[in-house]
Specification:
This protein is mostly beta strands and about 400 residues long. It has 7 helices and 32 strands. The protein has 5 domains: about 1-35; about 40-135, RNA Polymerase Alpha Subunit, Chain A, domain 2, CATH 2.170.120.30; about 140-165 and about 175-205 and about 215-230, no CATH class; about 230-315, Beta Complex (RNA Polymerase Alpha Subunit, Chain A, domain 2), CATH 2.170.120; about 320-405, RNA Polymerase Alpha Subunit, Chain A, domain 2.
Length: about 400
Amino acid sequence: MDKWLKSPWFIRIISLLLAIGLYVSVSLSDNEASALLPKSSSETATMSNIPLQVRMDEEKYVVRGVPQTVNVSIEGSGGIVTTTERVRAFNVFVDLEKLEPGKHDVRVQHQGFSNNLSVNIEPQTIEVVIEERATKEFNAEVDILNQDQLNEGMILGDPSVDPETVEVTGGKSEVDKIAMVKAIVDLNKIDGEKISVDNAPVKVYDEQGNELNVFVDPSTVQVDIPVEGGQKEVPLSVQTKGELPNGLSLQSISTKPETVTVFGQESLLKDVKEISNLTVDLSSFEKDGSVEIDVPLPSGLTRVEPSTVQAQIDVEETVEKILEDIPVQVNGLEEGRDITFIEPENQAITVTVMGTEKQLQEITAEDFTATIDVQGYYEGEFDAEIQINGPEGFDYTANFNYARVRIE
């Protein structure tokens, strides 16, 4: 052996064989090399729930029909199969970049696998629908589940939602179907006097109540719902402003219904006797009629039902009733002094009252008082203003506004 190693020709032959082997290993493809080299045992592996990527212009289009995951089977030498299954440095995708809106059958593609592996994807093709992207803003209403969990006597108030609106994005045909956007609240948590849900999921439905496959931003909202402890029925009292046209008087004003129900905590309900700050403008009426008016909510309470009522206005032609000999009383006269009425000479006035015939039937002179105040007046003649007090809701005039008196 030592003699061979010292032989130049032996060294040249060995070098030539090594050069040929290196050339072959560089020049042949993986598959050709595998054909020349001894084959190792083949293995198979199946990987489930591999995410399926979508390549498309997401700012312009949306797609329906793409599954979230697929199953991938690989076959090849044991070492490559094991490494691929462990590292998973590959992508599985559908390429929709060059497709127009509509329905398409597309092949599921892959990249990043070794050429020494046989790859099978299930499903191999999928049917997709590409649509133009549409975005629309909606108010989020509250859908309350399991209300039977409320304690007896407890009533839910009006919920508040933050934010009040959400943006819904999807295919134009899907967005056009939207009939309801609901924030779902399950009554599994009642805290004191309100229900508070930090992350109520937002669902989108069509007119038939079917949930639509769209994107919602934000996908959850904050919902607060007051829980009311009681209710009480109270009457209404209507005030008026403005004036009826000349020749008309207000006969009556009433509401339908005459009472409303207020809701809230018992400690606040007990102080509410009536709701009186409802107002009707008479200047808009020239005959009998009705108008819808809002019912104000008393401070601290949570709800009033109904929140609006009909105010019925009845008007009649104005008539006059003359009431004579209403005595003028004197206040503030100093002790020891006498007063004489120069005008009106009989120390009495006449009052003309305006109203409807029905209203004036019960009005008499005894319903009115007339007074003058002469405190601080001494000897001499003076004009003192006549103060007249009469029933509320009537217009009236007197034949004297001032009394001419002499004090001695």
